[in-house]
Write a structure and sequence with these properties.
This protein is mainly alpha-helical and 410 residues long. It has 18 helices and two strands. Strands 1-2 form a two-stranded antiparallel ribbon. Helix 16 crosses helix 17.
Length: 410
């Protein structure tokens, strides 16, 4: 009996650790690459099923589903339909692990293998899956820094232009998101700074400091299908989403994709602010607000878009103290004084019919904001009096708004 046959026997009777050990030994005795990869995948699959939490949750869920069917309770179980299409019946279906058949021959409509290059294309996809599932296991066991490195490798693998997955950039974006969030959740200061500050590429996945291998001629040597551009975690996440959006043509699908991107930006923004990086947190907030504007435009919500644009122009959507102060200065030191002066609503001094000059109207307008009286000019129309009151009230709201913005991002 071969090692592989012995492994399958142990696998059938739920002795997963022993089966994984035998599959691993069989893999290194194989000369053929395909058989070696298959046995390594089976070893990893058995190791996953050997985990107590997976066995317990999987068996309890299966019991609940069988009880539901026996009592006539019919409901759409998504996992059951998924099992029927992608998972082998029995053990693999119970534990929510991809079947060996699906691994070797994916049935998803999103997988497009190029004719004549099916084997190499499938290996590229399997490489991305392997990094992704390895990252999930590392993250589940609390090894977050290691998980972040694997998530980055998964992201680069999905972003490979030769990857046969149709929505590969969307999967890449999710992987880069997990890489960043795992790093921030780990709370280790040294790698945390690389999420937004230090670029990395395929030769420097772990820490972000490029250290490419050099050949004897001191030339950089990299694989043809490996991304060599250096970006931060946030840069890679943005790169993946921008490329994915280029492939989405329908306005509704674009809006849905942008909405998902905005939710991911919100998650990253909050984690960066909690970690103390308010500067990059503010940048992500502004990027998210601009994404929201694109969503409103695609969904033809013109009135909301108008007010959101006004909010963005005047204060960068409530994220910039300096833009807010500049807006207040332009309105109260230019627009309103010009309005008072040009309409003749302001009179010089406290008495008399003489029309106020522009400098006098400017002093009056600025005094209105800080609720101070001035003898330089006065208003003589009802609408100008109402505008004075609004200026006085707005001064308090402006101060509160500036304090609020400063506390959030500065």
């Amino acid at each position: 009996m071969t090692l592989e046959q012995r492994a399958r026997r142990h696998e059938k009777i739920f002795e997963f650790d022993e089966a994984a050990h035998l599959y691993f030994r069989a893999a290194w005795l194989e000369q053929s690459g395909a058989n070696r990869f298959s046995n390594l995948m089976r070893a990893a699959s058995c190791k996953e099923r050997a985990q107590n939490w997976r066995q317990q949750s999987g068996l309890w869920e299966r019991l609940a589903y069988e009880l539901a069917k026996s009592t006539g309770w019919e409901f759409p179980d998504r996992m059951e339909s998924f099992r029927s299409r992608h998972l082998e019946p029995g053990q693999l279906g119970i534990f929510h692990i991809i079947s060996y058949t699906e691994w070797m021959s994916p049935s998803s409509e999103l997988v497009h293998l190029v004719k004549g290059e099916e084997e190499i294309g499938l290996r590229r996809l399997q490489r991305a899956w392997a990094y992704q599932w390895g990252a999930e296991e590392a993250e589940a066991s609390g090894r977050l820094t290691h998980a972040a490195r694997l998530w980055r490798l998964a992201g680069l693998s999905f972003a490979d232009e030769h990857c046969p997955l149709q929505d590969r950039y969307r999967e890449a974006a999710r992987s880069f998101l997990h890489g960043a969030t795992s790093t921030l959740h780990a709370g280790e200061w040294v790698p945390m700074t690389f999420v937004a500050s230090v670029p990395w590429n395929s030769t420097s996945i772990e820490w972000g400091d490029p250290k490419p291998k050099t050949s004897t001629e001191n030339e950089v040597t990299v694989q043809d299908d490996v991304q060599t551009d250096s970006r931060t975690d946030l840069g890679w996440h943005r790169y993946a989403w921008e490329n994915y959006l280029q492939s989405v043509k329908a306005p509704t699908a674009q809006a849905d994709a942008l909405d998902e991107w905005a939710r991911e930006l919100n998650q990253l923004q909050q984690l960066l602010v909690v970690a103390g990086d308010r500067h990059h947190g503010a940048q992500l907030y502004r990027e998210r607000m601009q994404t929201q504007l694109r969503i409103l435009k695609l969904r033809h919500r013109w009135m909301v878009l108008l007010f959101r644009n006004l909010y963005h122009w005047t204060s960068l959507s409530g994220s910039s103290v300096w833009r807010t102060l500049l807006t207040v200065l332009i309105v109260n030191a230019a627009i309103l004084p010009l309005l008072y002066w040009s309409t003749g609503a302001a009179r010089a001094g406290t008495l008399g019919p003489q029309r106020a000059s522009f400098p006098q109207a400017l002093i009056m307008s600025l005094a209105n904001v800080v609720s101070l009286s001035t003898s330089s000019a006065r208003v003589v129309t009802e609408w100008a009096s109402a505008l004075q009151v609004l200026q006085a009230i707005s001064g308090y709201f402006i101060l509160a708004f500036i304090v609020w913005v400063a506390q959030r991002f500065h």
